[in-house]
Batch of 3 targets.
Target 1
Amino acid sequence: MKRALVIINPCAGTKQANRHFVQITDILCKAGYETVVATTAGRGDGTEIARTRSRKFDLVVCIGGDGTFNEVVAGVLESGSKVPIGYIPAGSTNDFGASLGLSRNIIQATKDIVMGVPVTLDIGSFNDRYFSYVASFGAFTATSYSVPQDLKNTLGHLAYILEGIRDIPSIKPLKLRVRNEVGVYGGEYIFGAVCNSTSMGGIITLDKKLVDMNDGLFEVLLIRSPKNIFELTQITMALTQGKYKECPMMSFFSSGNLHIEADPDMPWTLDGEYQPGSEEISIRNNRSAIRIMVGRDNAAAQDVLRTAGNKGKL
């Protein structure tokens, strides 16, 4: 019999996964999996559980938000296992799941895992720590985690934009130097993101045509610090209209490896979780590092997993 390890964060989001847990395990059992469950109780638990136990299983299922998924992915990679990962998004933002078109319906997401196919996916490294979809700093880094829930419900995506834009005038410019395979970028910035996703914290939304989550490249966005109201207006218009390439206050490019020199006291977030800064930062794309289960008719995954290794699977 096949074996599945379920790693669940019982405190994720609105705790809706807890209410459906019997149904989740029933679906896995009926699909032929002997199911073992482990719960996380604190930061790092997901990594430790996956690192020490994933090699003994045929499938690892993560139930939680993007932060929990980040931990599980790190643990699987550290274990050296090639076990496929199933992700049931149950957090408050679920940017990563949205990029892959994973169902927000708990039961459907479970069915997609047991009836789906494994596809390969790039994973990032930030010095010695992994991230699944984004490493960011500055203005919008914490926005999706500070917007009140009732405002999210009322205004949706606009709520994130308004919250982030409101903070721009008060943000201290952050000086850094970014070097990649083709050039050097430097100056004062209010925001930066290195992502492998179409969505970043609910603020930045990229066209699916610009993103392939298995091509060995990140999409990088840097927003310069505005010096006057005109430059601030340019940034605001570009954010609300999604015209990042056309804005002179923004640098948008693709890259597989980045070397960053920055203030060591400048905080970052990796997949929405706090990451201390460093004077020297190496960000590397680990191509096709993990296998993740997606539904066979997942059109969104087809859009962002276009490389040869995944062709014909969906």
Target 2
Amino acid sequence: MENKVRKNKAMKKLTLILLLLITFEMLSPKFVYTQEELGLIIIAHGSPMAQWNIPVLELEEEVKRIMSERNNNPFNEIRVALMEFNEPSINTAIKDLENAGVDKVYAITLFIAPSGHSLYDIPTILGLYSDKEMIERIKEEGTTTIDTKMKITIGPSLNVGEVLKEVMLDRVGKLSTTPDSEGVVLLAHGDARFEPIWGSVCREIGSYICAGTGINYFDYAFVEIGQSFILEGAPVILKTADKCKKTIVVGLYLAMSVEDMAQNSILDVGEMKIESKEIFAGKKIHFSKQSILPDKRISEWIVDRALEWAERMK
């Protein structure tokens, strides 16, 4: 009888403990751990000429395809955006990521080297940099700044790593036939505020090209698209043509070839028009027909940078 009483008391205590545990579980706050959704936005300058935007816009699917091939795509959404001139704009791409429930965004800018666009314009548009004059100028250009709760990280420009060197070496290699008698001229947009960096990038690429081809002569010039080809580019090209039997000209331009620039540049001097075609007539100068894009190595570079960032987010 005594044992039965002890058993009943023990059962009551056990039941009470279980009830307390259940009550505590029901009343205690619930912590739900969810994985943050990641988004990738690939930002280029953009052009008013639709055909120049095509190879940039095609990067979106190629980047997705490369990640699929590697069986490694941590991004919920991937978008290409254009800083100006055309859609999809940065604002449009950001809204797409917001609507998809993205929490953190990696924004990689397709600029050759650090510039006012990559260090000031794009951070201002993304709401990461605040300067009254900059904001007013961007609004005057018809671009709106972003206001989002998503956390945005901006990646590096294309000069990080070896991809530009490899692409330019390939472009020169396709035109080179007698390296010991050739010279190479590299044209790039440049940025006066960051000229030391741009000059260093060009010289490094030149050294890489010369080492990879056996060409001994190299020079470079900063030429803005459609503005300074004859004034800034032609003198350097002609100087190289005087020193070498054959001159190869390549360009650090995302979607425009130096051949297009050489064929279509005109300088107005009063009533006189100077055409670049006339300047180079009769000289052994070979202008590359290829821009940086399309080239799978650029997409792979984007994927590498994006996956490095995603790994740090774990």
Target 3
Amino acid sequence: MNKNLDIATAATIIFITLVQTGFAAHISVVPSHQTALKGKNFSVNISIDPEGSEVFGAQYELHFNNSLLNATAQDKGPFFGSGSDSAVLKNEINNTMGWLKYGETRTATPGITEPGVLATITFHAIDDIDGLSELKFTVVKLSDPNVNPIPTNISNGSVEITDSQSGIAIFDTGAPDSPYPSIMGVHNGTIIPDQEIEVNRIYTYACPGTGGHTEYARIWGNGVNAHANWSGYTGNWHNLTFNTTFTLEPGKEYNYTIRTGSYPQVIHHPGEYNATGGKIACNEFIDANGKKYTGWIPAIKLWWEEE
């Protein structure tokens, strides 16, 4: 046996393995963890980062704890394009067994090389009990335009179900029954908490299948002056971290300015809206076209999370 040939073959195998690993795509549940209130709706995105690959088809099966959650919707995201650019091959929800299945493909070359949202899942947190549910992929298949499998790294998610009297105090508008019409713009208004809430994060509810998000947020008044900036569609891009941790005190009024992008969920409600943790109002909303409205409340959540 040629020893030099064996060494060369082994080196080639190692090189090929390294190349394949370097070009492994990534599918993830975003955000990777969140807290949801019993009886409320919340959503997660299934996001894909091709990481140098050309993705032409995608399929997954996601499992959850059906004693804590019911899946109510699974909507196509913008990853593969719109209209005739793509086709949804499978979209199934089984709350009895606690799983969702989804499959989609491009209908013409080329494949996709930029990160994006494959699907948005809406869950309802069941009223009865607290607990932690994994959001765990059991099947993931990505393929290229030649129907070759693409090596894929997986990031699962989780959600903690709690109520306003236990766990970490939060301010949460929840997702409205109908978030439309929706458009990006600048919301200005006030928040009056009904409990002491420590804050260093803000989450924005996105319209299903979109990249709705907050690009900039500022909360100020009564000794608070904090801001947060968006860093793009990377990681937990729904969540922004404020430049400082602050405490909202019950009964005090705080001002907010929130500038959004894409299609965030909007609560259309005149005057004060009763959220979990207090009240919120929108005094003025200026959309991307310069039109002004009142009562366009951003659907958001404020809370503290260990960094």
